[in-house]
Amino acid sequence: AQSVTQPDIHITVSEGASLELRCNYSYGATPYLFWYVQSPGQGLQLLLKYFSGDTLVQGIKGFEAEFKRSQSSFNLRKPSVHWSDAAEYFCAVGAPASSASKIIFGSGTRLSIRP
Amino acid sequence: DTEVTQTPKHLVMGMTNKKSLKCEQHMGHRAMYWYKQKAKKPPELMFVYSYEKLSINESVPSRFSPECPNSSLLNLHLHALQPEDSALYLCASSHGQFANTGELFFGEGSRLTVL
After folding, report:
1. Collapsed DSSP state (helix, strand, coil) of residue B83
2. Of B43, B45, B101, the CB nearest to A44
3. Of B11 and A1, which is predicted with more confidence?
4. How many CB atoms lie within 10 A of CB A21?
5. Would the CA dihedral through B76, B100, A32, A3 be positive or negative?
6. What's the pLDDT tens digit per position in A11-39?
7. Which residue of chain B is at minimal alpha-carbon distance from A52?
8. B20 in contact with A at a CB cutoff of 8 Å?
9. Do B98 and A99 touch (CB under 8 A)?
């Protein structure tokens, strides 16, 4: 069964600084990988997804993520954060060969922005 | 129209009440989901409907009863809930039959408080 770990519970960065949120997965093959964002009191929105091919994935709102098979990681990056990026970020993993409609979410990383 | 609409946004109910949460999407998606999210936790899958048939029940207590009247509507009937059932209930839909193959579109959620 697949699993996903987000080591950082809470990160604070200054506005305009770069950002990297960590995500590690466990799965026997290449999984489907996702990053979702949840603003306070809102539902989740997909930022980007990786299924196969180019390991650097571009998403919405200026985010990108890189799949590194050797490190079982799918870290999310943004070169310059804005105050509106303050939110909860969830990495998620799905099993391509599974018939179950399940995506496993990580525990989340809360991002705060320092003015 | 890329929205998933959930009503009500807030619900307070007693342990003997019967209430329902409603979810609607008009994107032609054929899979719909109920998730439960406790504070500072990731969403937890409860039910999946695929082509209007219940395909996954994650061993949810019978006091939660899902219903999918048609491909655009999803209900969650609540009866004899416990205070620990207080949470944000999120509805989601996906174009593909399986969440693994695409994007989950989430509603803003219904915040439930059980007294």
Report:
1. helix
2. B43
3. B11
4. 23
5. positive
6. 999 999 999 999 999 987 888 999 999 99
7. B101
8. no
9. yes
